[in-house]
Structures are given as structure tokens and as C-alpha cells.
Design brief:
The chain is an alpha/beta fold. It contains 17 helices and 15 strands. It is globular and about 95 Å long.
């Protein structure tokens, strides 16, 4: 009896409405095949036929170029490597696809109004003397419920790097506070219903900056008035409560630098002035620059220190660019930043039609003339290029003011937004970038009969590697004759 039962055939397992399970599996396999093959085929066709991307507005760079063929490069493997990099880097609609990817990743995890995230490793904070602070003791978020912006600032001597996040470092709080994210020196914070990205300040002495300005002052022997105007990072005013330990004090840094500048050099304190306007849109939420409004208050403070005329903002024409998303989306790859654009507002003076901007390369060879304010190809990402079109050039502006005063602005990109507010104060304004200038700066000042010299840059440049360039500009190519080839 038992053997008979063993020899009986086991019933076949069946799925939906009696269909064999193996048949269902085969059916789904065939359907998947008919779906996936066309998808792969269409994707390949898409990558081959559609125009390839040339510029990434998200990453702020030109993409790889098609490699030049040579047999040496082919046999060495260099050509095939560069070819593969070209096709990988220039995928059609690259920025759009990356945006979709960032948005998709942002869907994961639990999101609440009181969530606080610390992602990645915060920067190492030092004090004004270059001594390191202990982040384990001083940088932990507190449980305070106050939401006021911290008066303490922070930053690092180089721009934040972009690396992957460390999910194991996520910390959460049950307190009713905004949402934060720290990623390699950047905090993403939700304040007043909008996301803002903040670069932190790691500290620094500013020794190279102080030395260079003091040397310039000696070179000119009091014949040229020198002004120092260092712009704080947005973290000076908007660092969330409890995160002060992640930053060093920018105010302390500025005061230390000012105390070491030689007599005759004027330190323009814009940190305090901007703090009085921090409830206004003086910094962008999605970009690492201050806004043109912040630059206005800085220029106003400088004009007062220099004793030159300055016009009220009401006399300027306001121009709005909607949907602006700046560099902080590239730095953080945070979908919240990309999905929360802002308005880029800049201001043109009432005498703009009587002012001409002359453009030169970094060796002062004339390249053309036009307006100081420029239209850019993609203003939603590159609106800051409205000012002079960028950094790698020398610009001279002739105004309709006849007072014999000539200003030279030595700057980084923060300084680009300043000159337009001084068109009613100076007869001529020269603008050079501390990173892109091939002449001797002392000779340039003397031969162009500059009367005032303004160093206008962000904290990063004053305490970081950019400051080393100032001494190079002071000493390089001495004695060369500098000729202005622009038409009269």
C-alpha cells in the first residue's frame, strides 16, 4: 500500500486559473524580452543619433571633446580611452538626465519637517591663529530650539569637494527644527520654507593677504589710496542654531587682518553692515555668491569710506531673471536646491547709457567694447556672468563722471557685482582678477594713473591660495611698458 502511494504522480503546481506556473514564468519572460529589446535598441539609437552635449550647466564645465586620431594614440590605447571618455561624458541631454537621477535619489529615505541630517565629513575648523579646534567637542549640534542665524561664520581655504555621501553618518533629532545637510563643508538648510546651501569657513590667518597689501602700500608711497574689503560667506548670517561649531568666526578673521594692515590702508567693514540687512536677499540660496543687493550694500560702505558720491538704490533699474539655480546645485547635487529656484535681480545705474566697458585679455590686449552688463546664453544657471561676462579678462569702464578719480578693483568673482554701483563715483574703473593677470600690477596702476585701489574678494580668497597670487602680481614682469590699445 505504501509503495503504491509512493508511485503515484504528484499533482502539478498550477498558477492563475489552472495555468502551469512554468507557463506563467515563460510568458512573462517572453513579454520582458519584447519590452527590453526595443528599449535597449532605442536607447542605443538615442545615444548615437541625437546631438551630443557640449556644456554642463550643472557641473559648470565644458564636456570632453572628440579626440584627434593618430596611429600612435591608437596603438598606445590613448585614443580608445579618450573616445570612450568622450561618449561617456557627452551623453545627449546630460544635465536633464542627471537632474532626473538626483530627483529619483531624493525620493528615498524618510523626510519630515523636523529631520536633521549630517552627511559626509565636516571641514576641520581652525581659529585665527591657525590652531585646530576639536570638532568632537565643539562641533556637535545642540538641542537648542532657537532658530536665529548664528553670528559666528565659517569657511575653508579651498572650495568644497564633491564626493559621495556617507549614510552611516546621518544623525536625526526629534526637536522641531529645520532640515539640515552637511556635505564636505556645505550645509543644506531649509529656512522659511526654502532650501539654502551654505559653504562653511574652516578659518585661516590671511598672512599672505596682509603681506601683499602692506607691500603694495609701500610701493605706492601713499600716492594711491588702498582699501581692503573682504566679503563674508553666507554662513556668517544663516548658519542654523546648534551648528556654530562647524564654522570658524569670519568676523574674528576680518578683525585680525585689519589690525595687521599698515597705517594708510583702509579696512572697509562690510561684515557688520551686511549683518544689518541679513533679513533681505543679500545672498543667493542656490549659488555661492552674494546677490547684487548684498554687493550694493558693500559698495555703499566702500563709497562712504572713500568719500565718493553714491546713488540710492531707487535710482537704479531693477532687472529680474526668474528660475535661477546657481553653483550650489553642482556642489551638493541636492535635488532640493534644484527644485527650489530663485529670482536673480540685478541693478543698472541711471547713467549706464553714458558708460562704455572696454574688454582686454589678461595681458591688456584690447578685444572689444560694449556694455558692462551682458546677456548670457542660459541665465537660469549662468546669471552671474551678467557682470562683465566672467573673470578671465581685464575690464575698463569709462563713465560720464569728470572728477579725475580712477579706481582699480582687484577681485575674485565676488567683486564682479561691485563696479556697476560706482559708475557715478569715478571717471574710470579698472577691474582685474587676482587669478588671471599677466602684467605687473604696480606698473599697471602707475601707468594708468589710478588714484584708488580696492581689494574686493570673498573670505576664501583672502585666507586661501588665491591670496598668494597678490604678491606674484606685485613682482612679476616689472618695468614692461603697458599700452592701452582701445580706441579713444
Amino acid at each position: 500500500m505504501e509503495n503504491k502511494e509512493k508511485n503515484q504522480k504528484k499533482p502539478t503546481k498550477k498558477g492563475i486559473e489552472g495555468i502551469k506556473r512554468s507557463g506563467i514564468v515563460k510568458g512573462f519572460s517572453i513579454i520582458s524580452l519584447f519590452i527590453m529589446v526595443p528599449v535597449f535598441f532605442l536607447t542605443a539609437l538615442f545615444l548615437v543619433i541625437l546631438p551630443r552635449s557640449e556644456v554642463s550647466n550643472i557641473e559648470k564645465r565644458n564636456l570632453a571633446e572628440f579626440p584627434e586620431f593618430s596611429f600612435d594614440a591608437l596603438f598606445s590605447g590613448q585614443y580608445t580611452e579618450e573616445l570612450g571618455n568622450y561618449y561617456d561624458d557627452t551623453v545627449p541631454y546630460r544635465d536633464e538626465l542627471k537632474t532626473v537621477g538626483y530627483n529619483f535619489k531624493s525620493l528615498f529615505g524618510i523626510h519630515t519637517d523636523d529631520e536633521i541630517k549630517v552627511v559626509g565629513k565636516p571641514i576641520e575648523v581652525v581659529n585665527k591663529d591657525g590652531e585646530k579646534k576639536n570638532p568632537d567637542e565643539e562641533s556637535k549640534p545642540s538641542d537648542e530650539t532657537s532658530k536665529q542665524s548664528s553670528e559666528a561664520d565659517s569657511s575653508q581655504s579651498s572650495q568644497p569637494t564633491q564626493t559621495g555621501t556617507d549614510e552611516s553618518s546621518v544623525q536625526e533629532s526629534s526637536e522641531q527644527e529645520p532640515e539640515y545637510t552637511v556635505e564636505n563643508g556645505i550645509i543644506v538648510v531649509k529656512q522659511n520654507g526654502h532650501y539654502r546651501a551654505l559653504e562653511l569657513f574652516g578659518g585661516g590667518t590671511g598672512n599672505a593677504y596682509v603681506k601683499a597689501l602692506n607691500n603694495f602700500n609701500k610701493d605706492f608711497g601713499g600716492k594711491v589710496k588702498i582699501y581692503s574689503m573682504i566679503a563674508p560667506l553666507a554662513s556668517e548670517y544663516y548658519t542654523p542654531a546648534g551648528y556654530e561649531g562647524y564654522t570658524a568666526s569670519q568676523k574674528e578673521c576680518f578683525d585680525s587682518i585689519a589690525s595687521r594692515l599698515d597705517e594708510g590702508i583702509v579696512s572697509v567693514d562690510i561684515d557688520t553692515v551686511l549683518g544689518e540687512h541679513k533679513d533681505e536677499d543679500i545672498y543667493f540660496r542656490t549659488d555661492h555668491h552674494w546677490s547684487p543687493l548684498g554687493a550694493y550694500y558693500a559698495a555703499q560702505t566702500f563709497a562712504k569710506a572713500a568719500g565718493v558720491d553714491f546713488k540710492d538704490l531707487s535710482t537704479y533699474k531693477k532687472n529680474d531673471i526668474e528660475g535661477f539655480v546657481g553653483t550650489m546645485y553642482s556642489f551638493t547635487q541636492d535635488a532640493n536646491i534644484n527644485n527650489d529656484p530663485e529670482t536673480f535681480s540685478y541693478y543698472t545705474p541711471d547713467n549706464i547709457d553714458h558708460c562704455t566697458a572696454y574688454y582686454y585679455d589678461t595681458s591688456f590686449n584690447y578685444t572689444g567694447s560694449g556694455n558692462f552688463f551682458n546677456k548670457v546664453g542660459d541665465p537660469t544657471h549662468n546669471a552671474y556672468l551678467t557682470f562683465m561676462g566672467g573673470d578671465e579678462q581685464i575690464v575698463k569702464v569709462k563713465t560720464n563722471i569728470k572728477n579725475g578719480k580712477k579706481l582699480l578693483i582687484v577681485k575674485d568673482s565676488y567683486g564682479n557685482a561691485v563696479p556697476g554701483y560706482l559708475f557715478g563715483a569715478y571717471e574710470e574703473i579698472y577691474v582685474v582678477d587676482m587669478r588671471y593677470f599677466d602684467l605687473n600690477l604696480v606698473d599697471f596702476v602707475n601707468q594708468n594713473k589710478v588714484t584708488d585701489m580696492l581689494f574686493a574678494m570673498v573670505t576664501y580668497s583672502a585666507v586661501g591660495e588665491n591670496a598668494d597670487n597678490l604678491e606674484i602680481l606685485r613682482t612679476q614682469n616689472k618695468g614692461a611698458k603697458i599700452t592701452d590699445g582701445a580706441p579713444d
